[in-house]
Amino acid sequence: MKRLLNIVADIFYPRCCPVCQKILKDQRRMICPECEKALRPIGHPRCYKCGKPIETGEYCRDCQKHRHVYEQGRGIFVYDGIMRRSVTRYKYYGCREYGDFYARAMYRYAQKELREWNPDLIVPVPVHRSKERMRGFNQAAYLAEKLSCYTGIMTDTNLVRKVIKTKSQKKLNALQRRKNLEKAFAVSEDVRGKDILVIDDVYTTGSTIDAMAFCLKKKGAENVYFLTVCIGRTWTALQKAAKNRWRKAA
Predict the structure, then answer these.
(1) pLDDT at 131
(2) Burial 78-99 (b: 16+ CB within 10 A, else e)
(3) Backbone angles phi, psi at 239, to 5 degrees
(4) Which sign does the torsion angle of CA 196, 202, 203, 205 carry?
(5) With the CA atoms of 140, 73, 151 and 110 taken in that order, what torsion angle do they form, in degrees rounded to the nearest 10?
């Protein structure tokens, strides 16, 4: 019966590639072969603290300038134009199946970090209940639950709640983002001595992860790590990318 339902679903609601959005010829795949070859996870060198791609040294400029509350983290893909469009479709346009590919990529490419961190619990970044009603789901919670299935690590989607409806972070600078998230999260129970892995879709300045780490540590968490689908580049890397695009256009 389950196989029959899957066949019917593939006919009427065929799975699309999360990168190019074309219908997958093989519905058993999560991504088309062409995009799988073209899409590359962030390798080395990368920042020891947040995992952003860097050219030299151990830390990116952001982590050199700002002391983070979390211990360490990693994003799998660079948050460029292609992945920005993909994540936008996932969050706002009902392409929930993209989360299956994202979670699989997080597990596949971050196995080394998962072994080293050895978290006791996976916790997604919560969204305010009004935003969750509007979207129909919490994109980070979906990723956390899927990752939990791969790793066997328990996830708690209700441990942290967003109690204040904050402004959108998109148009705020780093300082404004930190101020915007002050007292935004609340932890429902004691997590004394636990190592916690926080899951989100995108990391840019780290303000959200820091706010999560702060409230979790207030409730006794020993260490807080993070894993995201995408991570932004440092300002230097963005300037270099813009310069390369200008040279190609010239």
Answers:
(1) 85
(2) bbeeebeebbebbbeeebeebb
(3) -60, -40
(4) negative
(5) 110
| 171: DSSP letter | T
CA 126 to the chain's CA centroid: 12
Long-range contacts of 103-106 (CB under 8 A, 24+ apart): 103/142, 103/143, 103/146, 103/147, 103/150, 104/30, 104/146, 104/150, 105/41, 105/76, 105/77, 105/229, 106/76, 106/143, 106/147, 106/199, 106/227, 106/229
Q: Is the peptide bond before 45 cis (omega within 30 degrees of 0)?
A: yes
In this prediction the pTM is 0.86
Confidence of residue 246 (pLDDT cuts 50, 70, 90): very low
C-alpha dihedral, 42 to 46 to 47 to 49, nearest 10°: 60
Going by their DSSP bridges, the two strands 195-203 and 121-124 should be labelled as parallel
- Which neighbouring-strand residues pair with 223? 195
Q: DSSP letter at 23?
A: B
pLDDT of residue 37: 92
Structure confidence at residue 242 (pLDDT): 44
What is residue 72's three-state secondary structure?
strand
Rounded Cα distance, 52 and 243, in Å: 19
pLDDT single digits (tens) 78-121: 999 999 999 999 999 889 999 999 999 999 999 999 999 999 99
Place of tokens 């932004």: 232
- Rounded CA gap, 34 and 37, in Å? 5
* CA distance linking residue 212 with residue 6, whole number of Å: 38
